[in-house]
Every structure is written in structure tokens, then in C-alpha cells.
Specification:
414 residues; alpha+beta; Cytochrome Bc1 Complex, Chain D, domain 2; 7% strand; binds heme C
Amino acid sequence: MYINYVPSLRRNGAVVLVVAFAFLLASCKQDAPGTAPVSITPDNPTPVNISIPKAPTAIVFPVDNPQTDAKVELGRHLFFDKQMSVDGSTSCGSCHQVQHGFSDVFPTSMGMQGQHGTRNAPALANIAYNTAFTWDGRFESLEKHAPGPIFNSLEMGNNFTNDPRAQDSVPSGYNSKPGSNDTLFLFKRLGGDPSLTQRKDVNGNSYYDLINKAWGPVEVTTDGGNTWNTKVTFTLDIIAKSIAAYERTFISTQSDFDKFNNGDQSIYKYNPEALHGLKLFTDVNGANCVSCHSGYNFTDQQYHDNGIGINQQGDKGRFTVTKNQSDVGKFKTPSLRNVALTAPYMHDGHFTSLESVLKNYNSGGVHSANQDVKIKSLNLSDQDMADIIEFLKTLTDNNFVTDRGNKFGNPWGN
Ligand code: HEC
Ligand code: HEC
């Protein structure tokens, strides 16, 4: 099924796309809806209603974790530091790789010693706009989530003496001796101890300097022959807040789709397939993907069974949080930003390609008990599916995924 403007656009490269944006985001109200009706002339007088906001809403920084550059920089060092794992093999960046939109290439992620978990690493672009974290949404903030992988035995394997997941129970000072298994021990492992030879990043910065800048001033005292920072303690709270601040800088706004949505009519001029794909994606009578992949970040932040054939005995998804039977097998709608680079797909890495994802949606899904009513046979032709994939490819933000500078570069150089 091809709508008629597509072939004529192919014939005539000079066809003008008149993009009339009726809507401008005037306020910072969260989730303010936006529409960008697109008229394609002269062949298609019917406006295509793209119900995708042009701009993200403002990032809401937590009151107790205001954003600072120094915090972000400390967070970047922690994010990419393999010494954060007990065996020095795995950093956050091992599973959340920049070139894959902060995702990885495995169906389910690989942590320490080649061990695989049970879920696929989500891409982290625009994660600052999320309101719940992980596939089942069990964390309500990036700060609350960050300790998760640090203590997960498959991921980074730390096991502190005090209950690691409860930030309140972490001692407020460096009150334990080296060798005990807590954040002081971690600080030493990271090479931050100012009384010893400090580990330096590629620019000669040490953790001691970075922590001082972000959370200082640092007071140094001596305890049993070792010098420790006692005033500003390297607590789990500081670690989590710094990593979260860094994650809020993962902003992807420069894809071809964004340029188009912001008024650059030339973007899809020579890519009518992508424009047709966009129309199908947003059309309630077409593929209607936008009913779940909605908003600036292509997610409604809700939980659905999207018809991948959920085994009720397997990963129960949202059910593990709510204990509602109706939530068995529902997972959070993922963002589709940079999706062409984040294969394999779904919470369990079910599909290796976008082609197989589209085929499954087109078939109406492999039915299971809680499958969403919106998942039904779509009657898309092979060309329609290919066009939707062409559109999805235009969600790749090349600046974002190739940045290796002070934003997304690994400061440890490995
Ligand atoms: C071994 C691979 C691995 C490591 C290491 C890892 N992650 Fe993840 N990450 C995952 C997987 C898998 C999930 C999905 C978990 C789930 O749904 O239960 C995830 C989920 C997330 C999410 C939630 C994303 C969303 O869309 O809801 C964030 C944020 C995140 N990780 C950040 C981090 C940070 C920060 C670190 C380091 C402290 C880290 N990850 C270390 C694999 C990893
Ligand atoms: C009923 C809501 C819903 C609809 C409609 C929907 N999706 Fe999804 N989509 C989801 C959910 C939920 C997931 C994750 C499911 C899982 O992991 O088990 C998902 C996952 C995906 C993924 C994998 C992303 C990743 O990073 O793993 C792609 C690609 C995708 N959808 C594209 C589409 C396209 C294209 C359409 C329209 C043909 C569509 N979706 C329609 C809810 C929906």
C-alpha cells in the first residue's frame, strides 16, 4: 500500500514540502502535547498529522541533586570506570555503549566473568525525561537506580557490609579500615586515596580532585596511618547523585527526524520512504505505533504486553512491582531514539532486527493473556514495513552516538 505522493516525490526531486507547524512549545509544562501538521504539495493536499512534540519539556532536576558541571564530570568518571566492579572488568559503559545509543549488542547483557543477566540493556538517550526506570519500572529516579547495578552480583558485584541498597544506612564517614567492604574500600580500589599514588585519568585528574570539586571542600585526616577524606565522604549517596547527574546529560535532539520536525523540509525530500513510514507510524488508521511510542521520546512511559509471545512463567515484568495479575508480562515501552543501533530488541532481546520486529507487529503478535488490544494485524505491505524502518533509521542522532570528547568519551581511556 503506497499513498500516491510517494512515487511522485521519487520522480520529482523538486517537489516542495510545506511544513506548517501550528504549535510551538511555549511552556515547560511536562508532556505538553504538540502537533506538527505537514502538508505535502502539490501531490498530497491532505495534511499528515504528526502528533510528536517538537521539543522536549524542560528537564526536572531533583531538588536534592541540583546539576553542576563538576558533579557531571565526576559522574562520567564513575560511569566509565571498570574499577567500579569488584573484578575490574565492568563499568556502566560496558553495557551502555555510546555507539549503540548507550545500549549493547547482546540479547541479554553480559556482566562480570561473561555472565549474562536476563534482560536486554536499554538505550539511555534522553533518560532524563523518564519517570520510571528499568523494564518493569521498579525505580522512581536515576539516583535510586544507580546503586542497583553496582551491587548486582552479575553486573558489578559489590557487596558492602551495610545494606547497600538503602542509601540511608551507608555510614556518613570513612569509618572503616581499608579492606572492609564498603565505600571507603571502593574509594581505595578506585585509586582515590590521597596518601597513596593516586590513579589519574587521561588528563591527569584524580578522584580526589574530582570529588573535591563536586562535593568539596575536602578535609583530610589520618586514621591508622592512612589518610582519609572525612569531611566530604565518598558515600553511596554521592556516587549515585553524581552518576545520575551525568546520565541527565545524555540528550539526543539532533536526529534527521528532529531536524524535520523543527522545520527543515529538505530532510525527507529525497527520502520519501521515511516520510511515508512516519505517516504510517503516527496514523491511527495505519500502524498507529505512536499510540504507545508517543511524545518527544517515543514512549508513553506505560507498561504493555506488545505481543512478542510472553511466557506467563517467565519474566513477569511489571507484575513483579504491582503484583497485579493483569500486569504479568507487561514491560515499559522503550524509547525508539537511535533504535537502528540498539539491536537486539525487546526486554529479552527477542528479535535481532527491525525487520523481525515489524513482521511481528504486522501479524498482530503472538497472543498471550495480557496482550494489549492495540496490537492487532496491521495489513502492512512489505514496502510499508520497510518504510517504517526507514523512518526509524532517521531517529539516529549521529552527533550523539559518535561523541568521544568531554561529553561521552571515556576519561580512563580504555
Ligand atoms: C552487565 C550490564 C550492565 C551494567 C554493568 C550496567 N547496566 Fe544499566 N542496565 C542493564 C540492563 C540489563 C538493564 C535493564 C534492567 C531491568 O530491566 O531490570 C539496565 C537498566 C538501566 C537503566 C534504566 C533504563 C530505562 O530505560 O529504564 C539505567 C538508567 C541504567 N541501566 C544505568 C546504568 C548505570 C548508571 C550503570 C553503572 C552504575 C549501569 N547501568 C550498569 C545492563 C547493565
Ligand atoms: C501497545 C503498545 C505498543 C504499540 C502499539 C507498539 N509498541 Fe513497540 N513496544 C512496546 C513495548 C511495551 C515494547 C517493549 C516490549 C518488551 O520488551 O517486551 C516495545 C518495543 C518496541 C521496539 C524494540 C525497542 C528496543 O529498544 O528494544 C521497537 C523497535 C518497537 N517497539 C517499534 C514499534 C513499532 C514500529 C510499532 C508500530 C508498528 C510499535 N512499536 C507499536 C509497545 C508498543
